[in-house]
Write a structure and sequence with these properties.
The mean pLDDT is about 90. Helix 3 packs parallel to helix 5. This protein is an alpha/beta fold and about 250 residues long. The protein binds adenosine-5'-diphosphate (ADP) and magnesium ion.
């Protein structure tokens, strides 16, 4: 399987503090990877750095996407190449409807303005997958949305933008039962219709059970402490991190 993402010996700093100390990992086309680690291990930092967040400075190593060195590319250029990162805390934007937001995001990423009729059809189909009431399309983005509804809006974005690689950072969001179903269903549909790759940051056993995980990466103190197959994620959930982290050292 060819490599879609290759992170090579990456060191990252913010506010003059080194947070990631030489991370190497790769994700093949169509693969599903799980990123785990205790609070503060560096999972979100890695996700944001791959996406090109200006908050984090790459001080060493490189990031390749589809064979291209993207280490210096801006976040919007990375999005155009097919990278997507979901936010743990989606923003509320009064005055912009969910539908307008998604159409704008799609236009930015694809460089083309889709005909309104075609876009509405695409949106309707994606909303049906997520059992989302159509009226949500015309509501202001995330304003007054419940946690589960925000999650739906985020997964809807994934289905509309159809990125080549999606990084879903679920860590601290305390997903309720409804949200877990949405994430699982959305991921299933993304895998089915787009066949894209996934890096999912989660400790949620229900989400993990609904995925077919190719590889698990465990971060500790800004380093990859341990890697393994899909089973490793379940072992960690059952036995805790310590055992796996110390064995990896
Ligand atoms: P995780 O997502 O695994 O819980 P994070 O990537 O959020 O961990 O954080 C890793 C470490 O980096 C933590 O110690 C955190 O305080 C620190 N950190 C994250 N972002 C910044 C930042 N912008 N400035 C300074 N320190 C940060
Ligand atoms: Mg985090």
């Amino acid at each position: 399987m060819s490599q879609l993402l290759y992170v090579q010996d990456l060191t990252v700093s913010a506010e003059d503090k080194e947070l990631l100390h030489g991370i190497t990992l790769s994700v093949g086309e169509g693969e599903t990877h799980v990123l785990m680690g205790q609070n503060g291990a560096g999972k979100s930092t890695l996700g944001c750095t791959i996406m090109g967040s200006p908050e984090y400075a790459v001080t060493g190593g490189k990031i390749f996407f589809g064979g291209e060195d993207i280490t210096e590319l801006s976040a919007d250029k990375r999005a155009k190449l097919g990278l997507f990162l979901s936010f743990q805390n989606p923003v509320e934007i009064p005055g912009i409807t969910l539908s307008e937001f998604l159409r704008g995001a799609l236009e930015q990423v694809s460089g083309k303005r889709m005909k309104l009729w075609d876009f509405k059809k695409k949106l309707k189909a994606a909303m049906q997958v997520l059992d989302m009431d159509e009226s949500y399309a015309d509501r202001d983005l995330n304003v007054g949305f419940s946690g589960g509804e925000k999650k739906k809006a985020e997964i809807l974005q994934l289905l509309i933008l159809q990125p080549k690689l999606a990084i879903l950072d679920e860590t601290d969001s305390g997903l309720d039962v409804d949200a877990v179903k949405v994430v699982s269903k959305g991921i299933e549909e993304y895998r089915r219709s787009v066949g894209g790759s996934l890096i999912i940051i989660t400790h949620n056993d229900k989400i993990l059970s609904s995925l077919s995980v190719d590889k698990t990466h465990i971060l500790a103190d800004g380093r990859v402490a341990r890697e393994g197959d899909g089973q490793l994620a379940f072992d960690v959930l059952q036995n805790g991190f310590e055992k796996y982290i110390s064995e990896g050292k």
